[in-house]
Design brief:
This protein is an alpha+beta fold. The protein has helices at about 10-20, 50-60, 70-75, 75-80, 90-100, 100-110, 125-130, 155-170, 235-255, 290-295, 300-310, 390-400, 415-420; strands at about 1-5, 30, 40-45, 60-65, 85-90, 120, 140, 150-155, 180-185, 190-200, 200-205, 210, 215, 220, 225-230, 265-275, 275-285, 325-330, 345, 345-350, 355-360, 365, 370-375, 380-385, 405. The strands form 7 sheets. Strands 3-2-1-4-5 form a 5-stranded parallel beta sheet, with helices on both faces. A 5-stranded antiparallel beta sheet has the order 12-15-18-24-21. Strands 6-9-7-8 form a 4-stranded antiparallel beta sheet, with helices on both faces. Helix 1 (about 10-20) runs parallel beside helix 10. The structure holds adenosine monophosphate and glycine.
């Protein structure tokens, strides 16, 4: 089967690596891919959705997988389905669960799915009145997509009112901030739980933990994610059962009943408070770097899993996951997440990769001499596998030690929550 992956990060690279390992995978394409993805398949430079769908028809692509939310919220799945192409991801209507936080919160409230108490509004005075009813810290969120930056945890009511006013006036996030969600702060631990669904059935993947802050010890600004591991031992069977019964099942059912069946992967950002799960957010795609850890653990056919979800036959697959643990450490370029960085040549020791250590590439390019360079942003993920989290983490950091480029930055404490005694 020929397959196409839309995107160019380490998430898409990890999916590509899993497809490549599948005996049923013939030609593999990335649009646009990155400077290293040609190790796995061919990069194609088409960004227009109609043109991509035409490319898929002409090249006999039987499965397309969309990595990120930008293409999903633009309706990539609708465009492909209109040409009878199988594509993994939600249609535009369901992608609004990520595209609008106000829509998502109202969906949760309408369906009595646990989430933080909130209001959504475009009126600064209404925002201020609700803020006055909450204890600090107070959470203020821009409604639209802000590349992970649209959430302010205000330490006082004054700061929250100012954050809401700045968003609503268009100063902070332009159009994306013209509506805001104000909500109570939930104090607990976070989990990323992924459910693959064909609109009716779903399969929950091993629970992950991400590390959103830039610096070791959860310091510094929020990022797309600086490392992840799975499975997270904090996600007990009892807790996962609650998440399935109270969050995932009602979401999949309500989405279908509302005429926007959820197909693809539902990413539930969960806050666990006193052993009770609350929905912080939904994303309508895999997390990055969580996906890299999950793909490292997938022990059965990736094509079968994604293809059956795409064509509404998820009940026919039983994916298997390794008993191992996976720990992924993101290595980012010098100025991430503040700005761009000068390209820096990457060197990787010859013996860097082995069955318990591999690299997933993201923001990398090839320079004129054919050398790989870190081109800004998150450059790559060093993934370690092991029989326990400790050895997986050791393998990940041994791999980090075999990778060099000027200005490389990474956290030294990925998976600390699993190792805290
Ligand atoms: P979101 O994009 O909505 O997931 O928010 C980004 C991050 O902000 C989350 O991963 C949490 O760490 C934090 N956050 C969001 N909402 C809340 C909340 N209600 N209480 C505590 N932390 C939150
Ligand atoms: N790692 C979190 C995300 O992909 O949104």
């Amino acid at each position: 089967m020929n397959a196409l992956i839309i995107g160019g990060g380490a998430r898409e690279y990890a999916i590509g690596r899993a497809l490549r390992a599948d005996k049923n995978c013939e030609k593999l394409y990335f649009a646009p891919g990155n400077g290293a993805s040609e190790k796995l398949g061919a990069n194609i430079a088409i960004a227009d959705l109609e043109e991509l769908a035409d490319f898929a028809v002409k090249n006999d692509i039987k499965l397309t997988i969309v990595g990120g939310e930008e293409f999903l919220t633009k309706g990539a799945v609708d465009v492909f389905r209109a040409k009878n192409l199988a594509i993994f991801g939600p249609a535009k209507a369901a992608a609004r669960l990520e595209g609008s936080k106000a829509f998502m919160k109202n969906f949760l409230a309408d369906n009595r799915i646990p989430t933080a108490r909130y209001i959504e509004t475009d009126d600064p005075n209404e925002a201020a009145r609700f803020i006055a009813t909450l204890n600090a810290p107070i959470v203020v969120k821009a409604d639209g997509l802000c590349a992970g930056k649209g959430v302010i945890i205000a330490q006082s009511a004054e700061e929250a009112v100012k954050a809401a006013r700045d968003m609503l006036s268009g100063t902070s996030f332009a159009e994306a901030g013209k509506r805001v969600v104000i909500e109570e702060f939930l104090d607990g631990f976070e989990l990323s739980v992924f459910a693959i669904s064909d609109g009716r059935d779903f399969i929950v993947l091993p629970a992950c933990q991400d590390h959103k802050r830039l610096l070791t010890g959860d310091q510094g600004p929020n990022t797309g994610g600086m490392g992840a591991y799975a499975p997270a031992p904090l996600a007990t069977d009892e807790l996962l059962e609650k998440i399935k019964a109270r969050i995932i099942r009602p979401t999949i059912d309500a989405a279908r009943i509302d005429g926007m069946p959820f197909t693809g992967v539902l990413f539930c950002g969960i806050m666990v408070v006193d052993n009770e799960p609350f929905t912080l957010e939904f994303n309508v795609r895999f997390g990055d770097p969580e996906c890299e850890a999950l793909m490292a653990l997938l022990d059965s056919s990736a094509i079968e899993l994604f293809y059956n979800a795409a064509i509404g036959r998820l009940s026919e697959v039983k994916p298997r996951f390794s008993d191992k643990k996976a720990v992924g450490v993101v290595i980012a370029a010098k100025n991430y997440p503040y700005g761009s960085s000068e390209p820096a040549t990457i060197t990787i020791a010859d013996d860097a990769e082995n069955e318990n250590a591999h690299i997933l590439f993201a923001a990398v390019s090839k320079n004129a001499e054919g050398k790989l360079t870190a081109s800004g942003g998150r450059a790559l993920v060093a993934m370690g596998l092991g029989d326990d989290v400790k050895s997986a983490r050791r393998n990940a950091y041994d791999l980090v030690g075999k990778i060099r480029f000027d200005g490389m930055q990474y956290r030294t404490d990925i998976a600390y929550q699993a190792l805290r005694s």
